[in-house]
C-alpha cells in the first residue's frame, strides 16, 4: 500500500510539471513572435512584420470618443504597414514593452503587454497591447492585436 501511494503521488505530481514544461516552450515561442513583430516595427521593416502575422490579422484600438464613450476602432493592416513603411527615416519610434503575461498551449496563445510609446525619445502615450496568436505547426503567427492608448496616468 505504501508503494502504491508513493507511485500515485509521483504520477500525479509529475503530470503538472510535464505540462508546465510544454507551456513554457509555447509561452516562450509566442512571446518571441511578439518580440520579432516589434523588432520589425522599430526598424520599419514591413517584410519582417509580415513574417510574424497571419494574412487575416485583425487590429483594433479601444478608444474614448470626445463624448467620453468607449468604442473600438478597426485598423486596416495595409494602412498600418504603409504608415510604417513611409515613416520618415529621421523619426525614431520606440514601443517600450513593460512586461509580459503569456498564456499558451500548443496551438493558441495570448500575450498581454503594457507599454509606453516614444517618438524621437519624447513620450507620446501608453497603454496595453493584447496579442492573440496561433501555431500553424511551424511558427507562431499573430492573428489579432488590440490596444489601448492614453496620455495620462501612465507612470
TrEMBL record:
Alphabetized SUPFAM superfamilies for the sequence: NTF2-like
Protein name: Nuclear transport factor 2 family protein
Organism: Aquimarina rubra
Amino acid at each position: 500500500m505504501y508503494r502504491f501511494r508513493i507511485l500515485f503521488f509521483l504520477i500525479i505530481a509529475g503530470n503538472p510539471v510535464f505540462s508546465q514544461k510544454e507551456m513554457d516552450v509555447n509561452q516562450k515561442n509566442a512571446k518571441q513572435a511578439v518580440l520579432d513583430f516589434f523588432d520589425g516595427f522599430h526598424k520599419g521593416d514591413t517584410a519582417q512584420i509580415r513574417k510574424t502575422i497571419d494574412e487575416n490579422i485583425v487590429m483594433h484600438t479601444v478608444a474614448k470618443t470626445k463624448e467620453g464613450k468607449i468604442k473600438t476602432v478597426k485598423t486596416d493592416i495595409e494602412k498600418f504597414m504603409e504608415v510604417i513603411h513611409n515613416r520618415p527615416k529621421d523619426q525614431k519610434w520606440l514601443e517600450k514593452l513593460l512586461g509580459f503575461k503569456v498564456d499558451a498551449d500548443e496551438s493558441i496563445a495570448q500575450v498581454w503587454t503594457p507599454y509606453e510609446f516614444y517618438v524621437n525619445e519624447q513620450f507620446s502615450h501608453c497603454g496595453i497591447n493584447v496579442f492573440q496568436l496561433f501555431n500553424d505547426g511551424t511558427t507562431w503567427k499573430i492573428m489579432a492585436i488590440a490596444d489601448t492608448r492614453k496620455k495620462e496616468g501612465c507612470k
